[in-house]
Write a structure and sequence with these properties.
- The structure is a single chain.
- The strands form two sheets. A five-stranded mixed β-sheet has the order 6-7-5-8-9, with helices on both faces.
- The two termini are 25 Å apart.
- It is globular, with a radius of gyration of 23 Å.
- It contains twelve helices and nine strands.
- It is an alpha+beta fold.
- It folds into three domains: 60 residues, no CATH class; 139 residues, Alpha-Beta Plaits (2-Layer Sandwich), CATH 3.30.70; 86 residues, PucR C-terminal helix-turn-helix domain (Arc Repressor Mutant, subunit A, Orthogonal Bundle).
- 51% of the residues lie in helices and 14% in strands.
- α6 crosses α7, α8 crosses α12 and α10 crosses α11.
């Protein structure tokens, strides 16, 4: 939508990330439903009537949100968004955690404070009302998926919000940190669209979903005919195959996650092999069937 709108304002610029400057020169049009998300229109190139019309269709921002930052957070913001010098107190590995609130209406005042309680002394940069980053250093680097899942559940129970995290990789080189920050944020945005039920994202978790969504037509049609159609018709089998593969093809662990007896899961695996002729316990087959599970689950929607 914003791309079409840009054609009416040739001097405007498009961004996928929230703007961090130029609020004195541009009106920023925000469209959270499509990409790119932000369109900057020079204030000198738009009439009052046009601005009024756009305001009725989109959120128009002409001043940067007044998020209070500490000195360290300001250094990180300058480093990440304006190619400033790396924060002087940064030593060793760091990990950037992206977070996002999916709740339609929420007041960040309370849940923001609660979130920071889990990461004492870690720099926070709030990008907009619903998203931001946490910069983890030292002991906080050891936080894993289960920790972030527990934090998300706690905040949901206390504040009735849906909070998602993307766990970035540990990095040390300043240039790599900055470049990876933007790439990981783009990947997080993609993951939120493709795996909408997920709460905690990683590169490894999003990659199969992206691969499945972008399969070429020929293998996708064959997979549809040979596997996906079967899984779509049998939700119980679909769930069993996906959980089995997500638990490293460990029958006992997968059965526990599915709340069924191990023999019941073994029967379903044998049923799948009999119907498709595919032994899911081989490496290449496991990859193929997992992509089929993702596509079948998406189709079941």
């Amino acid at each position: 939508m914003l791309k079409k709108l840009q054609s009416h304002f040739p001097t405007s610029i498009l961004l996928n990330l929230p703007p961090q400057s130029s609020f004195d020169q541009y009106f920023w049009i925000k469209d959270t439903q499509n990409e790119p998300v932000w369109l900057g229109i020079p204030k000198t190139d738009i009439h009052e009537e046009q601005l009024e019309l756009l305001s009725s269709l989109f959120e128009v921002v002409d001043s940067k949100p007044a998020f209070q930052l500490t000195e360290v957070e300001k250094q990180w913001q300058e480093f990440l968004f304006h190619e400033g010098a790396p924060p002087i107190n940064t030593e060793g590995e760091i990990r950037i955690i992206h977070y996002h609130i999916s709740t339609t209406k929420t007041d960040s005042t309370e849940w923001d404070k609660a979130l920071k309680e889990f990461f004492i002394d870690s720099p926070f940069i709030q990008i907009d009302e619903k998203s931001g980053i946490i910069i983890l250093e030292k002991t906080a680097l050891d936080y894993g998926e289960e920790d972030f899942s527990a934090i998300s559940s706690t905040l949901e129970n206390d504040f009735f919000i849906r909070l998602e995290f993307y766990i970035g990789k540990k990095r040390t080189a300043p240039q790599e940190i900055r470049e990876a920050f933007f790439l990981e944020r783009e990947l997080f945005i993609e993951g939120l669209k493709l795996i909408s039920k997920e709460r905690v994202f990683t590169y490894e978790k999003i990659f199969p979903a992206i691969t499945a969504a972008r399969l070429p037509d020929i293998p996708k049609k064959l997979l549809e005919t040979d596997v996906i159609e079967l899984l779509r018709k049998d939700g119980e089998l679909l769930e069993s195959m996906k959980v089995f593969l997500e638990n490293n093809s460990n029958t006992s662990l997968a059965a526990k996650k599915l709340y069924i007896h191990r023999n019941t899961l073994q029967y379903r695996l044998e049923k799948f092999q009999a119907l498709t002729g595919i032994n899911v316990k081989t490496f290449s087959s496991a990859i193929t069937i997992y992509l089929a599970c993702i596509l079948a689950q998406k189709n079941n929607g």
